[in-house]
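Fold this sequence, please.
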Amino acid sequence: MEQNVHKKFNKRQNDLRLYIINKVIDEKSFNIKKNGKEAMRDLDMSQEEYDEATEVLKFQDGLVTDEEDNVDFIYPVSALPTNHHVRTDDGREFCAMCAIDSMGAAFTLHTDTVVDSVCAVCGEPVHVEIEGGKIKFYSPEGLHALTFPLGEISNWSGSC
């Protein structure tokens, strides 16, 4: 199974994925049906191309919606509150799906980020600063991050 979410999709699907990511960050929500016309206009997509792209994104776990077609998760962003807070260098703030995804946001959005999270084991605060694609600072001093191959579970969004 492909580990890089971006590589799972073609250019137009990724254009839509990044568009939705930014809408969720900026507006805290995106509804596939209600916001579709605006997305199609902004991305110069036909209804057919939009419908096909959203179906592929859903089927390939690029995004997860609720029963009303609200985007709950679109890697690495969570539209639902989590303990994993990200601030970008332009001041935007959002929740990530998990602590690892919060660090991945720097690479998805091509920006420096500050992550404030909580250790899943002991509940202690975790702080990570990523600048220029590298960890600039982290605390606590003995911080370790554990991850696993996404292929080990079928619906990663429900496991973060």
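The helical segments are 11-27, 36-43, 47-59, 99-108. Residues 11-27 form the longest helix (17 residues).
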